[in-house]
Design a protein that fits this description.
By secondary structure, the protein is mainly beta. It has one helix and ten strands, in the order E-E-E-H-E-E-E-E-E-E-E. The longest helix has 6 residues, at 31-36. The protein is globular, with a radius of gyration of 13 Å.
């Protein structure tokens, strides 16, 4: 597989690990993602482990209520989500990964989520 990355929200209440090669990194233009502006990486559920803070996670759903967007209830940072088109995957906020500078990553692929709204 890839490398194990540690991730967390801003305040540290939510922590996770993801085992991945971190490619591709994507950006989505749906109504929610356009507003949060996060770079994301999607991987299979078995590569994602929530280590701490399940009780501190909020979940936001809209439109079809199939996608689940998780955020820390303390600091408000979006940490991960389950995409509507493939809920077997987990999308992680690349900005939450320790030691990864998202500004130095290659250009993100665009997911045209706006066409699904």
């Amino acid at each position: 597989m890839g490398q194990v990355y540690s991730g967390q929200c801003h305040c540290g209440a939510v922590k996770f690990e993801v085992n991945t090669d971190l490619q591709p990194v994507v950006r989505c233009n749906c109504s929610l993602c356009r507003r949060k502006g996060a770079l994301m990486h999607r991987t299979e559920q078995e590569n994602f482990t929530l280590l701490k803070g399940a009780e501190n996670l909020g979940c936001y759903q809209f439109h079809t209520h199939k996608a689940e967007h998780y955020f820390c209830k303390t600091c408000g940072i979006y940490t991960h989500h389950r995409p509507r088109m493939n809920p077997a995957l987990v999308g992680v906020n690349v900005g939450c990964l320790d030691g990864v500078d998202s500004a130095l990553l290659p250009d993100a692929e665009l997911i045209d989520g706006a066409s699904f709204d």
